[in-house]
Amino acid sequence: MRNPKLCHMWTDANLLVGIALVLTLTGCMTHYGHFSLDARVRQAFQAGSVQPEFQYYYTGRETMPYAIIGIDRGYTVPSRYWIPFSPRPDQLKAMSANIYREIRDLPYGAYILDPAGQTIGIWYSNVFNRNVTVDQARRKVQVLYKNPENKDRPR
User: At the top level of its lineage, which domain of life is listed (predicted)?
Assistant: First the structure.
């Protein structure tokens, strides 16, 4: 014969553990976006095509950036490493032509996607060790990458 009080306690404990597990996994999985390589993004940067729906940022030196991103204006990029700027087409073209190239010669373009797969930005660089986190509630995007001039510490 089952003890109803014991069964009720067991069910409550399982329920709490289950809820905690789901919340933990959901919290971990929903904040990561990803990159989708696309030659059209590379071509747009190289042509100096400024897209008004994006706020542009660069990191590194303005004359030789490590990377350039454009992020949907509905988001912020709270990082001291990403410098906001409003590029002119000739400026974006010149910066794209002089991207930091110690890693490899051919920079690439990619769409930056949120966890649901929606485009929230664009990326241009030759750094492959990168990731993106998205806080949808606060509308913040963090694009992290390994600094190409300091191979020991990620940025």
Answer: Bacteria
Q: Which two tokens stand for residue 1?
A: 């014969």
Nearest Cα neighbor of 42 from 91, 100, 110 is 110
Same domain membership, residue 37 and residue 14: no
Q: In terms of domains, do 10 and 76 share one? A: no
Tell if the pTM clears 0.85, that is, is over it. Answer: no
pLDDT digits 0-9 by tens, 62-91: 999 999 999 999 999 999 899 999 999 999
How confident is the model over 4-37, as pLDDT tens digits?
554 444 455 454 444 444 444 444 444 899 999 9
75: phi > 0 → left, psi -120 to 50 → alpha, else beta; which?
Answer: beta
Question: What does the alpha-carbon distance between residue 54 and residue 62 come to, in Å, rounded to a whole number?
Answer: 18
Q: Is residue 50 part of a domain?
A: yes
What's the confidence (pLDDT) of residue 129? 78
In what helix (H) or strand (E) does residue 91 lie, and over which residues does it extend?
A: helix 89-97
